[in-house]
């Protein structure tokens, strides 16, 4: 059985991975009746404002033959063969709206577009050929193909469910690629053989232009187009294209989009570089595009904070405060690099792809309740740091899908994102956690995470605030009190738990969530608590959302009435 990998840079792993000594085993602190964990919410002014929807999910290109570590986890979930007519899939996607649906991944740079007006040489198969070790991505170059009818169907999926489509374009067409000596194992040993990723030359936009023209003629509404997937500098996987060359190529894409969609109202956004973060390369790329007048509308980076899917330490990292905290530093660094390099342009910053563990995720972790802790903490941290979206790898497919690969039923992380989407609005508020008495308990506070947003506008009732609390500890209950807002009203509680971290089921307020045979989602009804000042008891390995009605947060009234921060 073949094992084909989608590796990420060691730099990313080293920057983000650190196993806490308390991530596995017992992390218990002596709590008394006098112990208080105080979550203070700053309601005077918003910390950040989300411009559009924050939620984003992905579909990838990987065919059924994609295997990692002896497990073939993709089945028929490729965007080429997933059942787009499945009512389960459509109901799941509709439940998350407004949400971005990003179509992309490593094989995007091996796909051609068989649409009217395209001049293609050779056969254009609608699926990839069999795996090979001759290429870095594990499949023959240019062996994938998408037809006009499939492109139409993908666009119809979003038109009917309300998602916003983002599509990753082939960024390697036209470039030269030297052949390695016979027998070179580029898939597993690319670091020892420069020829495996030594692409050169400029991008050829002709096939992309045919796709864009067809898209415009069909009246499809595409939110944005990305150029390439993990192709830049040291952060690249399939190639290591220089920042200046990539900028030249991206400006060609920008001019194409501008020519085909002259009206700004309907024009798709242009997105780049969909790469593992390298500060120097990102800065150079953005300075070049800004100087040329073609800076991206969205700057994307990829993030897999748990490491490789085969690594058992990924299970510890998913609950390690020190691992999760490194997202704050990383996100702040990326934000600074983008601001300094683009000046007044101020593009959005997204995690363009993140699934926890790379190489298709880790079965038993990224498809179980265990996964919800790193995932939700990432959403909270990145929103605080000014990111505008987080694209979860995947909606379905691999070991990190929000939906089961064969049944299309929701995995626990689906419900985590569902509650985020419904409750956490555009106004991001600053929070702080203090503990008393502090002696011997300071370390405990790292395992309690708290985030606050203005409640979603459709549900808001004058300054309502939504909270998300996460307990990373395996053996400690946290009594949480709230401060900084009015608490004499009613509180809506959504407490999520499971029978074990390894469970593929999740309970809301003690009742397990089960979707209907047609994919209709269960009612997500809160428990009502009055007054809202009643302490929240957060159990070990659980998370919760809370809506404080009538909290009178002036920051939230500011966001909703003026639309600005």
Description:
The protein is an alpha/beta fold and 565 residues long. The protein has helices spanning 10-16, 87-96, 148-161, 186-189, 206-218, 243-260, 279-292, 313-317, 321-342, 372-384, 412-423, 554-562, and strands at 36-42, 48-49, 55-59, 100-103, 111-114, 144-147, 164-169, 222-227, 269-276, 298-302, 307-308, 348-354, 357-358, 389-392, 424-436, 448-455, 465-471, 478-483, 491-497, 507-508, 511-512, 527-529, 536-538, 542-548. Strands 1, 2, 15, 16, 17, 18, 19, 20, 21, 22, 23 and 24 form a twelve-stranded mixed beta sheet that branches. An eight-stranded parallel barrel has the order 3-4-7-8-9-10-12-14, surrounded by five helices. The longest helix has 22 residues, at 321-342.
Count of strand segments: 24
Shape: globular
Rg: 23 Å
Count of individual helical segments: 12
Average of the residue pLDDT scores = 89
For the sheet with most strands, the description reads: 12 strands, mixed
Q: Termini, distance in Å?
A: 54 Å
Query: Which class best fits the helix and strand makeup?
Result: alpha/beta
What share of the residues lie within helices? 10-25%
Low-confidence stretches: 1-25, 561-565
The percentage of residues in β strands lies in 15-25%
């Amino acid at each position: 059985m073949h094992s084909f990998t989608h590796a990420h840079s060691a730099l990313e792993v080293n920057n983000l991975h650190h196993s806490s000594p308390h991530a596995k085993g017992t992390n218990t602190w002596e709590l008394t009746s006098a112990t208080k964990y105080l979550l203070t919410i700053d309601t005077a002014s918003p910390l950040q404002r989300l411009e559009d929807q924050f939620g984003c999910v992905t579909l990838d290109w990987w065919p059924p033959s994609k295997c990692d570590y002896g497990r073939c986890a993709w089945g028929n979930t490729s965007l080429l063969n997933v059942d787009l007519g499945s009512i389960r899939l459509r109901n799941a996607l509709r439940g998350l709206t407004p949400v971005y649906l990003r179509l992309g991944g490593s094989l995007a740079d091996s796909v051609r577009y068989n649409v009217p007006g395209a001049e293609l040489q050779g056969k254009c198969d609608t699926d990839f050929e069999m795996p090979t070790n001759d290429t870095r991505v594990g499949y023959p170059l240019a062996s994938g193909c998408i037809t006009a009818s499939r492109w139409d169907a993908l666009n119809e999926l979003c038109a009917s469910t309300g998602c916003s489509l983002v599509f990753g374009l082939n960024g390697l067409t036209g470039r030269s690629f030297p052949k390695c000596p016979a027998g070179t194992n580029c898939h597993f040993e690319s670091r020892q053989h420069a020829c495996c990723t030594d692409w050169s030359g400029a991008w050829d936009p002709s096939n992309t232009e045919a796709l864009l023209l067809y898209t415009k003629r069909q009246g499809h509404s595409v939110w944005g187009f990305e150029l390439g997937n993990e192709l830049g500098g040291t952060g690249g996987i399939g190639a290591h294209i220089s920042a200046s060359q990539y900028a030249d190529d991206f400006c060609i894409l920008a001019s194409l989009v501008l020519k085909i969609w002259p009206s700004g109202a309907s024009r798709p956004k242009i997105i780049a570089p969909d790469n593992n973060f390298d500060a120097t390369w990102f800065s150079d790329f953005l300075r070049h595009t800004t100087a040329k007048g073609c800076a991206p509308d969205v700057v994307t980076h990829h993030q897999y904070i748990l490491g490789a899917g085969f690594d058992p330490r990924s299970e510890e990292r998913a609950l390690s405060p020190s691992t999760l905290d490194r997202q704050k530093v990383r996100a702040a660094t990326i934000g600074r690099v983008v601001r300094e390099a683009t000046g007044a342009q101020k593009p959005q910053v997204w995690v363009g792809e993140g699934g926890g563990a790379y190489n298709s995720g880790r079965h038993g972790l990224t498809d179980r309740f265990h996964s919800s802790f790193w995932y939700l903490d990432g959403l909270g941290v990145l929103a605080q740091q000014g990111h505008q979206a987080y694209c979860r790898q995947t909606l379905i497919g691999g070991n990190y899908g929000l939906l089961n690969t064969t049944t299309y039923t929701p995995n626990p992380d689906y419900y985590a994102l569902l509650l985020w989407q419904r409750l956490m609005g555009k106004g991001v508020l600053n929070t702080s956690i203090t503990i008393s008495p502090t002696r011997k308990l300071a370390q405990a506070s790292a395992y309690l995470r708290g985030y606050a947003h203005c409640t979603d506008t459709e549900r808001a009732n004058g300054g309502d605030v939504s909270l998300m609390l996460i307990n990373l500890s395996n053996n400690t209950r946290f009594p949480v009190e709230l401060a900084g807002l009015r608490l004499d009203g009613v509180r809506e509680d959504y407490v999520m738990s499971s029978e074990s971290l390894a469970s593929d089921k999740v309970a809301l307020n003690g009742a397990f969530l089960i979707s209907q045979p047609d994919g209709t989602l269960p009612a997500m009804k809160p428990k009502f608590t009055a007054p809202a000042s009643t302490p929240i008891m957060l159990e070990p390995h659980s998370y919760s959302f809370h809506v404080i009605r009538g909290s009178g947060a002036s920051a939230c009234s500011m966001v909703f009435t003026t639309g600005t921060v």
